[in-house]
Amino acid sequence: MRMRKKKNLEERLREVSDILYTDDLADRNFNTAVILKKYIDLDSWFEKKQPLYLEIGCGKGKFACEFAAKNPDINLLAVEKSGNVLVEACEAAKKANLPNLRFIKSSAEYLEKYLKEESVDRLFLNFSCPFPKKAYASHRLTHTKFLRIYKRLLKSGAEIHQKTDNMHFFEFSVENLTAEGFALKNVSLDLHNSDFEGNIETEYEHRFASLGQPIYRLEAYLQEKKDD
Question: Homologous superfamily of 51-221 in CATH?
Fold first, then answer.
């Protein structure tokens, strides 16, 4: 079911514009739109120059806000394509006064337009839409086309941390990550019944775990940068 547009959405988005980057793209074809770069000046946007982590699909920002609060020595850039959802994350971050948390309203396909190559120290993919129909596999955020974008954005040795409740999506991710040269570690088929420490729950994670569903998690990394 499509979420109803929030009342006063545009006004609310303007009120958080100091921590939110938006770009009304004239070119909606990401293959051509990313050619003309509009790199965000992250050094001036964040209060401190420190390692940059990226979360794609931040939802209402529960993970992003908690992670930023617990890790003040890391800058977190949270990405969400729906302004209707993102506005709640931005408002929560403003309320919590988190100088190391910023947001981009964008789809993952366009991130190379705004972020420089080898600028990201870690990538979080938390409960991305699994797009269960085979015909929509190319929309999954661990599809080959996205992994190749990430490889260009990630620094050498940087990691991707993924969590999902969908077993088939997890298997798809493992297969594609491996095929793209990523090595895997700390793989869990039931995160909440493992010995993993320091987990930060997302909104979806809390809901699924409370129903007794297993949470799948992995960490993936490239030992060396490779040309595509």
Answer: Vaccinia Virus protein VP39 (3.40.50.150)
Q: How far is 153 from 37, CA to CA, in rounded Å?
A: 14
pLDDT for position 225: 53
* 218 contacts 162 by C-beta, under 8 angstroms: yes
Distances 158 to 134, 155, 162 between C-alpha atoms, Å: 30, 5, 13
Query: Residue 88 in contact with residue 61, Cβ under 8 Å?
Result: yes
Mean predicted lDDT score pLDDT of the chain? 93
pLDDT of residue 23: 86
The alpha-carbon radius of gyration of the chain (Å, integer) is 17
pLDDT tens digit string along 57-91?
999 999 999 999 999 999 999 999 999 999 999 99
Sketch the domain layout of the chain as residue ranges.
Answer: 51-221
Q: 141 to each of 85, 111, 214, 227, how far by Cα in Å?
A: 18, 13, 20, 20
Coil vs helix vs strand at 18: coil
| Three-class SS state of 171 | helix
Per 3-state DSSP, the chain is made up of helix, strand and coil in percentages (nearest 5) of 35, 20, 40
Q: Which of 220, 146, 226 is nearest to 183 (CA)?
A: 220
Contacts of 133 (CB under 8 A, 6+ apart): none
Classify residue 223 as exposed, middle or buried by CB count within 10 Å of its CB (0-12, 13-18, 19+): exposed
